[in-house]
């Protein structure tokens, strides 16, 4: 059965995380993704984090289901190749500084005129408009401006970052949503494409729940709260007898009553002040103290067993070793078996969301730099002599030479 995005061609001009992450998701559901990288160096992500044989193992996740075209976009010949590819593409993804593509003659107005069906996803720190549009914007800046960094960490201590590039990933997810909406619009409106403008800070801000209305109405500035969830009680981490932490979310009204029964505090379960969340929130310290006292007398496994039996949402804090050992991850194909270019086995994250009829899949491993240059250029009718000339001048690169 065809995948949802079979027949859709994506041209990826982005680097590192946000743009490539969006293209990765589209590729997992059937889109053909042609990734353009600079000759010689390739996408900087190839050298990020831990390297195997000179290439990041992160690359194996971010670039699966993609083809690599090593092409210098700063050269007129490279820009012309992009125009020829964009003329046949459905989607173009880029996350350069706003104005960069315009300087190369590859901006939205030019490409839309060339291919009115084209959908262009533009991911940047601050968006394509506004007084900050020209500022360099990385994920951590988006996380800070979007309000997330202020809430991260313990009260009275410096803000901490989430341990992954969450700002970039959130922007990518919003970008995928925007692309799918634009595809639907194109289907409904005679094939007309559009530009999708995604800013990192806005993608983070969109996750900030009630932050703005609380400030608007009450002038309340929410502060860091460590492991608790302010205003929603109980929802916290509680240390157990073995020094491990149990995460407990007993904030539903009926769940709270079951939780109190488990810890032997029927008096709290029967207290009308605690019947609903607003009342419980006013007494969060008292409730947390009662749960904490109970948890300290039991091991983490014993705490979770009792809570699960009572149908109370609870869990442990997983590290990656816990994830790899967990049978639920395996049962839902969230850990996939693959191998690197030299045959080294590697486990990669599974694919989400899970569609019942047309699930995503890993069709091909991440490519070497320029692995598909010859094939893509040949498909455009660019002859071997021209390709040889371009390679000698550094405009293109063929084959996986840069992987060595």
Walk me through this protein's architecture.
The chain has 404 residues and is of the alpha/beta class. It has two domains: 270 residues, Rossmann fold (3-Layer(aba) Sandwich), CATH 3.40.50; 82 residues, formyl-coa transferase, domain 3, CATH 3.30.1540.10. The protein has 19 helices and 14 strands. It has a seven-stranded mixed β-sheet with strand order 8-7-6-1-2-5-14, sandwiched between helices. A three-stranded antiparallel β-sheet has the order 9-10-11, with helices on one face. Helix 1 packs across helix 8. The longest helix has 23 residues.
Structure in a nutshell:
The protein has 404 residues and is of the alpha/beta class. 38% of the residues lie in helices and 15% in strands. Strand 12 and strand 13 form a beta hairpin.
Distance between the termini: 38 Å
Helicity range of the residues? 25-40%
- The value of Rg in angstroms is 25 Å
> According to CATH, what is the topology of the largest domain?
Rossmann fold
Major β-sheet profile: 7 strands, mixed
Give the low-confidence spans.
none
Strand content: 5-15%
> Based on CA inertia axes, which overall geometry fits?
elongated
Tally of helical runs: 19
Assign the CATH superfamily of the largest domain.
Crotonobetainyl-coa:carnitine coa-transferase, domain 1
Counting helices, strands and paired strands, the structural category is alpha/beta
Known CATH architecture of the largest domain: 3-Layer(aba) Sandwich
Strands of the widest sheet, in order across it, are 8-7-6-1-2-5-14
Domains (count): 2
Count of individual beta strands:
14
Average predicted confidence as pLDDT: 95
């Amino acid at each position: 059965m065809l995948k949802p995005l079979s027949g859709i061609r994506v041209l990826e001009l982005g680097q590192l995380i946000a743009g490539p992450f969006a293209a990765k998701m589209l590729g997992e559901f059937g889109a053909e993704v042609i990734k353009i990288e600079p000759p010689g160096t390739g996408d900087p992500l190839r050298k990020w984090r831990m390297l195997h044989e000179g290439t990041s193992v992160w690359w194996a996740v971010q670039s699966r289901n993609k083809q690599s075209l090593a092409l210098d976009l700063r050269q007129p010949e490279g820009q012309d190749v992009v125009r020829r590819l964009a003329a046949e593409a459905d989607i173009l993804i880029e996350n350069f500084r706003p104005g960069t593509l315009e300087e190369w003659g590859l901006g939205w107005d030019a490409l839309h005129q060339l291919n009115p069906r084209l959908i262009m996803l533009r991911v940047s720190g601050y968006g394509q408009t506004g007084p900050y549009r020209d500022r360099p914007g990385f994920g951590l800046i988006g996380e800070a401006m979007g309000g997330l960094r202020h809430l991260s960490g313990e009260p009275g201590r410096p803000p901490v970052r989430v341990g992954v590039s969450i700002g970039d990933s959130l922007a990518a997810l919003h970008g995928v949503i925007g692309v799918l909406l634009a595809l639907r619009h194109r289907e409904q409106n005679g094939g007309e494409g559009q530009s999708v403008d995604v800013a990192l800070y806005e993608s983070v801000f969109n996750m900030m729940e009630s932050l703005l209305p609380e400030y608007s109405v009450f002038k309340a500035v929410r502060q860091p709260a460590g492991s608790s969830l302010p205003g929603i009680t109980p929802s916290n981490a509680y240390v157990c007898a073995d020094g491990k932490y149990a995460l407990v979310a007993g904030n539903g009204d009926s769940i709270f009553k079951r939780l109190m029964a488990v810890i032997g505090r029927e008096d709290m379960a029967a207290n009308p002040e605690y019947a609903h969340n607003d009342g419980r929130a006013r007494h969060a310290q008292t409730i947390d103290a009662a749960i904490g006292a109970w948890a300290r007398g039991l091991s983490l496994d014993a705490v979770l067993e009792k809570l699960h039996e009572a149908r109370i949402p609870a869990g442990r804090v997983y590290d990656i070793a816990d994830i790899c050992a967990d049978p639920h991850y395996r049962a839902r194909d969230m850990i996939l078996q693959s191998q690197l270019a030299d045959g080294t086995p590697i486990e990669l994250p599974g694919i989400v969301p899970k569609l019942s009829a047309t699930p995503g899949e890993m069709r091909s491993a991440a490519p070497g730099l320029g692995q598909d240059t010859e094939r893509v250029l040949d498909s455009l009718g660019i002859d071997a002599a021209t390709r040889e000339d371009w390679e000698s001048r550094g405009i293109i690169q063929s084959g996986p030479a840069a992987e060595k």
